Amino acid sequence: MKEQKYNIVLYVPLGKRYGTMTVCMEREMIRGEINIMQHLEQFEGKQYPDGSVEISGKLKTLVRLIYYKGSGMISPANVRLLLDTGEDIFEIEGIATGGD
Predict the structure, then answer these.
(1) Could you give the maximum distance between any two Cα atoms of the chain, in Å?
(2) Tens-of-pLDDT digits for all 100 residues of the chain?
C-alpha cells in the first residue's frame, strides 16, 4: 500500500482553507484523510486505470457536517478534485509534501 501526503487548498465561497491530505492507494482502492478547518475526516473510493479517482466522505465546519462525492486526479506529485455536496461544488488543489 502506497501512502502520499499533500498540502492542499480547499476553495469555498468564503475563500481558501489550507490543510493536508493523506492518500493510501492499493490496486483500485483509495482511502485517506483530509485535515482541514481543524478537523480530520476520512474518505474512501476508487482509482481507475487512467489515474482518475472517485471518493466520498465528509467535511466538518464550525456549524455543520458536509457530505460529498468527489472526482478528479491524484498523482504522486499533485491532487486536483471537485467535491460535490449536492448544494455546492468545492475544489481541492494540492502538491505532494517532501516525504513522511
Answers:
(1) 38
(2) 589 999 999 998 889 999 999 999 988 999 999 999 889 999 999 999 888 999 999 999 888 899 999 999 999 999 999 999 999 999 999 999 975 5
Q: Which residue has the cell 466520498?
A: 56
Give one word for 99, left, alpha or beta, with left for phi > 0 and alpha for psi -120 to 50. Answer: left
This prediction has a pTM of: 0.89
CB atoms under 10 Å from CB of 36, counted, come to 21
86, three cell numbers:
449536492
Secondary structure of 18-81 in the HEC alphabet? EEEEEEEEECCEEEEEEEECCEEEEEEEEECCCCEEEEEEEEECCCCEEEEEEEEEECCCEEEE
